[in-house]
Amino acid sequence: MNKMAPTNFPVYLDAFLNKYLPEERNCSENTFKSYCDTFSLLLQFIRDNEHINAERLTLEDFNHTLIERFLGYIEKERECSISTRNVRLAAIHSFFRYIQYEHPGFLLEWQKILGIPFKKVPHRIMNYLTSEGMRVLLSMPDQQLAIGRRDLALLSVMCSTGCRVQELCDLTPGSLRFAKPYLIKVIGKGNKARQVPLRDDLVILLKGYMDEHGLLAMSANRYPLFPNKHGNKLTRQAVTKILDKHIAVARIKRPELIPDVFSPHCLRHSVAMALLQTGVPLIYIRDLLGHVSIRTTEGYLRNESKQSREALEKAFQNIVPSLEEEKNPWERDRGVIAWLNGFKGSKSI
């Protein structure tokens, strides 16, 4: 029995995912997974809507209208956000930028696909905790229990470093420097490393936690810093669950300090806002958080301006008299015409 020869699409997709991304672009594991998810969804969409199975799909089957229909499917049928739609489009753009050099025979069509624009994402106000709110959150884990001490160490790292959830999950004991100056090495997006200072009190807390779990030995340097019960590193979903548990209790105790909607990324916002409010320059906040562009960090400045305005409005309510209390001259008299006529009698020409 003759085997079916592979079409050109899977050959190029394999080279893109397994050679170009890791070897030439040095993409992170998360980027790789995101791209794989995108093409898995795209192949399913083509199978169900274009009735072309993946093993028969060729590059010639792709055009900009197909990609636009797929993006519409992502938004409408899967009910994904504009941000998710843009993430999927970014993966497709990256693939066809690669393809236009490897298979330029359909260059015009590839450029039409690359011309599909990203949608503007509505600006959302960032929820964050004040310093008092973070103190309340860190008082929630039960330090009499081993899991409570683990949660306290985990949340303390997030509240002190502003690291992303995946960055937290990827930490190992070898990421920590316990010689002065105390530092933690964080691997961010694009496998870019940055060093974040650690406070003395956090170092004491982490040393106690690591000693309890046998993580101070040199042989444990590559173990997960925050493992699950099986010894594997925590997932992003597990970290979210840990935070949700303690945020829920904190909200009951101090509802005025805890926003109604709060995610692990909000702790990152909390660190940024705390630094901004104490006068730390934006460029240092950018480096601490691992932002590629200062424009991303400037979003916290805009958020701070809005919070300041809301605080002022709340503090000075009912100070300025309303128009109902002090009517305009033409409203006190017989109307605007009578008011204007009054000037004629009172002034001579």
TrEMBL record:
InterPro entries cross-referenced by the UniProt entry:
CB (IPR044068), DNA_brk_join_enz (IPR011010), Integrase-like_cat_sf (IPR013762), Integrase_catalytic (IPR002104), Integrase_recombinase_N (IPR010998), Integrase_SAM-like_N (IPR004107), Tyrosine_recombinase_XerCD (IPR050090)
Q: Which UniProt keywords apply?
A: DNA integration, DNA recombination, DNA-binding
- Which positions fall inside the Tyr recombinase domain? 124-313
- One Gene Ontology biological process: DNA integration
Has the keyword DNA-binding been applied to this entry? yes
Q: Which SUPFAM superfamilies match?
A: DNA breaking-rejoining enzymes (SSF56349)
Q: Which GO terms describe its molecular function?
A: DNA binding
Which Gene3D superfamilies would you find in this protein's record?
1.10.150.130, Intergrase catalytic core (1.10.443.10)
* Start and end residues of each Core-binding (CB) domain: 7-100
Q: Which PANTHER family match?
A: PHAGE INTEGRASE-RELATED (PTHR30349), TYROSINE RECOMBINASE XERC (PTHR30349:SF81)
Q: What is this protein called?
A: Tyrosine recombinase XerD
This protein's species is bioreactor metagenome
Name of the gene: xerD_47
